[in-house]
Amino acid sequence: MSVKVILRRSLSILETARTMKAKLKLSLTWQILIALVLGFLVGMLMQGNVEFAKEYIYPIGTIFLRLLKFVVVPLVLVSIILGLISMKDVSTLGRLGLRALLYFVLTTVFAVTLGLVVSTLLKGILPVIDMSGMEKPQLAETQSFVQQIVNMFPENAVRPLEQGDMMQVIVIALLFGFAIVKLGDKAKIVSDFCVSFNEVVMVVLGFVMRLTPYGVFCLLCPVVAENGAKIFGTYAALIGMAFFCFFLHAIIVYANCVWAMAKMRPGKFFKGMFPAMLFAFSSDSSLATLPVTIRCAEGLGVRKSITNFVLPLGATINMDGVAIYLGVTSVFVANCCGIDLSMQQYMAIVFASTIASVGTPGIPGGSLALMAMVFASAGIPIEGVAVVAGIDRLIDMGRTTMSITGDASCAVIMEHFENE
User: Fold this and answer.
1) What pLDDT was estimated at residue 135?
2) pLDDT tens, position by position, 353-362
3) How far is CA 31 from CA 13, 24, 25, 225, 262, in A?
4) Span 246-252, mean pLDDT?
5) CA 217 to chain centre
6) Distance from CA of residue 302 to its chain's centroid?
7) How many C-beta atoms lie closer than 10 Å to residue 217's C-beta?
8) Is the pLDDT confidence value at 248 over 90?
């Protein structure tokens, strides 16, 4: 079968999937899974035509990546500002709000650190996908810790946006977000503009995300053509490592925090939360699981006034599962590209992942956009986003379960603190 025939039939199947979406409302997840399977099959058939795949198929995927890079900076800038604006009510709630926010931030930092440590320790024994040919973003030369901190702060408001310096973009967003919150009604015009501009960015992101199936196919096909069947074992290893980190985080953080801070047996906590955890695993949505999470937390003795505040807040800003996933995939893709991450890059991943997980509200295709932002901040090729996009849905079930469990552990702990 010739290369032209293979491509013609593949594009026909993708077009059929697009038509099915219009008729059956096929979700983006299913479209990506179809593109993933096609990428595997066509890549296996094109193992004797690797150069053709790289020269004529890969550039189409590059267009998708360019558009993804284009939307990341305005997405991160505006969404972090809106995240801070939305938390202005937290400051008025005083002690409870500050304690809950501190708990969410600390558990998120631990989550991304756990993902980095475990994946770094295991990377030597896990199979990899050869992505060494991908272009690596340029990072500054190795610098001292103090100089790295200094370089996080911009000296120009426009240059970080133009150059895509994500650390400085995040700092700009934090400064403007805090200023808008402090000014209150005086900054209402700016606040309203951010809300409107965010809507525009969401629509643009929606346009880009519609191209994801085509991007996944065109980026994955050359990789499979070059690596062959061993790529299946690599994906299985990545999924297993992510879920292993989820399990460790639940045992190390949630179980111990509930036991030490709320004086509740971990077995009682997990048993009480099991219905919500099961619902989150199957529904893949923290917000959809919220009513079940509230009911389970109240069954553990948390009063309604606390569940009605802490759990919706957590469903919006607490994403420990996402933080773990960003840490694991960062090390995985860097290893596939032959990059030995430096301490500077590890710090960039921790900082960017924490801000992305805590400060960014839920968005369509959010995990892929956030992953691109974290990769860019650490000098990792963002082409790796498309390579892992196909299994994102499988890992997302574990991510959602982690997030709602973390929300509930915070509610239980806040209940104990308030009683004291």
Assistant:
1) 56
2) 887 665 554 4
3) 11, 12, 10, 21, 44
4) 93
5) 21
6) 30
7) 29
8) yes
Tokens of 309: 């505040």
- In one-letter notation, the amino acid at residue 259 is W
DSSP SS3 for 365: coil
Cα distances from 143 to residues 24, 117, 140, 148, 379, in angstroms, run 54, 22, 8, 6, 15
End-to-end Cα, the chain, rounded Å: 74
CA 143 to chain centre: 28
Find the helix or strand (DSSP H, E) in which 79 lies: helix 58-86
| Entry pTM | 0.67
| Helices and strands (H, E) in the chain, number of each type | 21, 0
Place of tokens 């890079």: 69
What is the SS3 assignment for 132? coil
Q: How far is CA 158 from CA 72, 76, 296, 351, in A?
A: 15, 15, 47, 21
pLDDT at residue 140 greater than cutoff 50: no
Distance CA 32, CA 137 (A): 26
Which parts of 184-211 fold into alpha helices (H)?
A: 188-210
Mean pLDDT of 16-28: 59
Checking phi first, is residue 343 left (phi over 0); if not, alpha (psi -120 to 50) or beta?
Answer: alpha
The Cα–Cα gap between 327 and 344 comes to 14
Query: What type of residue sits at position 44?
Result: M
Q: What burial letters (b/e) apply to 159-188, b meaning 16+ CB within 10 Å?
A: ebbeebbbbbbbbbbbebbeebbeeeeebe
What are the Cα distances from residue 107, in Å, to 100, 180, 192, 208, 343?
11, 27, 32, 32, 21
Give pLDDT, residue 235.
77
Residues of the chain by 3-state class (helix, strand, coil), percent to 5: 80, 0, 20
∠ Cα 172 178 184 (to 5°)? 135
Residue 268 is predicted with a pLDDT of: 92
Burial status of residue 207 (CB atoms within 10 A of its CB: 0-12, 13-18, 19 or more): exposed
Q: Sign (positive/negative) of CA torsion 182, 185, 189, 192?
A: positive
CA 116 to chain centre: 14
